[in-house]
């Protein structure tokens, strides 16, 4: 055998081995692809044969019982603390008129009109606040779970949360409160699609309503909950969540502690040390067409929501709600700047007809409510997040744009000052 023939045999053998390995690798990848395709089709609603369960849907009940107009009297049936630090308290409300309660959508909220005493002026005032319903519909009561708001650490000179402290300190069993009908555009849609719930702090409250609703039905949609708190002291309804995870195979609980205590055991009390972020989601979640529902403080919303978009999650699959007046991030809605730092938009004047003031609009103002307050215009307000309707104002001339879709639907010819900005010269009846 010549040297040329030997080299040819070696190359032929090497080529044969590469061909075999390449074929095996392709076959394995093809099997993985087929498995992923099968998993996706299993959860895609257009391919699923499992009927959609809509036990909570208001479409199946008497429309006359779905809402009430104005304020309705509710009595506090009981108060229950939900965390070790007793900073979160659940209030169970039953209607004074003993009439049936309308079915709400899991994730919606109640609006309260409270008569409180201002801690500074010592004068009585009306305060309007919205709190998420934290249990499933169809019960003989409503439940809201409210966290006591304290000044930030090192800022004891700042005021505490007026309404939350009023609830904790003054609202006792037997107290009667004025409440508006359930409302809100942040709720879980009836579907078979797998769901990821992401909650930070007291943002767990609407997620509890969603969880309790779906896990109480025969719908076996896959549900993940990523719940971020500092440690076990701050975790709300710890035993309830753990019981749900043990009872329901389609529910996966993932607790994240940013500052666990010595008594907190990794793998038992919590599954991840740190905050809920996109890296954790990508490492933990399987490849499925999840619907994402997110509720939490501003830093969480400003990181996770855009990160999901960058990850490739379709925008229609991302649903979110920030809590608290300071939770709305409005910087993304500011007008673009020209070179030199000037706003690239025509000048706009806002006229407050009741006050007799016409003032050039300041593009640095977050909203018309902020702008009015900055110019000493007295405006009634409540949630400052488009939920309660307290700042609803008549538009006499001009138009506004909304920073975000409000949960409260304003009357025709009116706007909500807290989540709107002028698009051209504007005249408001205040």
Automatic annotation (TrEMBL):
Family designation: In the C-terminal section; belongs to the flavoprotein pyridine nucleotide cytochrome reductase family.
SUPFAM superfamilies associated with the record: 2Fe-2S ferredoxin-like (SSF54292), Ferredoxin reductase-like, C-terminal NADP-linked domain (SSF52343), Riboflavin synthase domain-like (SSF63380)
The entry's keywords: 2Fe-2S, FAD, Flavoprotein, Heme, Iron, Iron-sulfur, Membrane, Metal-binding, NAD, NADP, Oxidoreductase, Transmembrane, Transmembrane helix
Span of domain FAD-binding FR-type: 69-189
Superkingdom classification of source: Bacteria
Keyword Iron tagged: yes
Pfam families per record: FAD_binding_6, Fer2, NAD_binding_1
Enzyme Commission code(s) on record: 1.14.12.17
Natural source organism: Terasakiella brassicae
Domain 2Fe-2S ferredoxin-type: 346-430
Protein name: nitric oxide dioxygenase
Catalytic reactions on record: 2 nitric oxide + NADH + 2 O2 = 2 nitrate + NAD(+) + H(+); 2 nitric oxide + NADPH + 2 O2 = 2 nitrate + NADP(+) + H(+)
Single GO MF annotation: 2 iron, 2 sulfur cluster binding
Chain ranges passing through the membrane: 6-27, 195-215
Swiss-Prot/TrEMBL cofactor(s): FAD; heme b; [2Fe-2S] cluster
PROSITE patterns, alphabetized: 2FE2S_FER_1, 2FE2S_FER_2, FAD_FR
């Amino acid at each position: 055998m010549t040297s040329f023939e030997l080299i040819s045999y070696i190359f032929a053998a090497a080529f044969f081995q590469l061909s075999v390995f390449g074929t095996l690798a392709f076959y394995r990848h093809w099997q993985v692809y087929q498995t992923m395709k099968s998993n996706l089709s299993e959860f895609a609603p257009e391919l699923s044969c499992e009927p959609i369960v809509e036990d909570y849907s208001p479409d199946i009940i008497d429309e006359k019982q779905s809402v009430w107009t104005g304020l309705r009297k509710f009595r506090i049936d009981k108060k229950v603390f939900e965390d070790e630090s007793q900073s979160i308290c659940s209030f169970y409300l039953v209607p004074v008129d003993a009439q049936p309660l309308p079915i709400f959508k899991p994730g919606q909220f109640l609006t309260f009109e409270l008569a409180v005493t201002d801690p500074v002026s010592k004068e009585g005032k009306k305060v309007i606040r919205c709190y998420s319903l934290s249990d499933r519909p169809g019960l003989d009561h409503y439940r809201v779970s409210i966290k006591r708001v304290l000044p930030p650490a090192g800022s004891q000179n700042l005021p505490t949360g007026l309404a939350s402290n009023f609830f904790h300190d003054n609202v006792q069993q037997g107290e009667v409160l004025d409440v508006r009908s359930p409302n809100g555009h942040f709720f879980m849609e009836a579907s078979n699609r797998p769901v990821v719930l992401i909650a930070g702090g007291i943002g767990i409250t609407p997620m509890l309503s969603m969880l309790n609703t779906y896990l109480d039905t025969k719908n076996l949609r896959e549900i993940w909950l990523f719940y971020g708190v500092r440690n076990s002291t701050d975790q709300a309804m710890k035993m309830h969540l753990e019981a749900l995870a043990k009872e329901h195979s389609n529910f996966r609980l993932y607790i994240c502690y940013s500052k666990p205590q010595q008594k907190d055991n990794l793998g038992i009390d919590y599954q991840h040390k740190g905050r809920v972020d996109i890296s954790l989601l990508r490492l933990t979640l399987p490849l499925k067409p999840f619907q994402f529902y997110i509720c939490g403080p501003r830093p969480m919303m400003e990181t996770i929501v855009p990160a999901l978009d960058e990850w490739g999650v379709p925008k229609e699959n991302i649903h979110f709600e920030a809590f608290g007046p300071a939770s709305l991030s409005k910087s993304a809605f500011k007008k673009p700047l020209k070179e030199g730092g000037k706003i690239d938009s025509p000048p706009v004047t806002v006229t407050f007809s009741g006050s007799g003031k016409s003032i050039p609009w300041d593009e640095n103002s977050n909203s018309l409510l902020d702008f009015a307050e900055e110019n000493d215009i007295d405006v009634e307000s409540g949630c400052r997040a488009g939920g309660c309707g307290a700042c609803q104002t008549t538009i006499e001339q001009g138009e506004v744009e909304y920073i975000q879709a409000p949960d409260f639907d304003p009357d025709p010819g009116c706007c909500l000052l807290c989540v709107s900005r002028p698009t051209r010269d504007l005249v408001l009846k205040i």
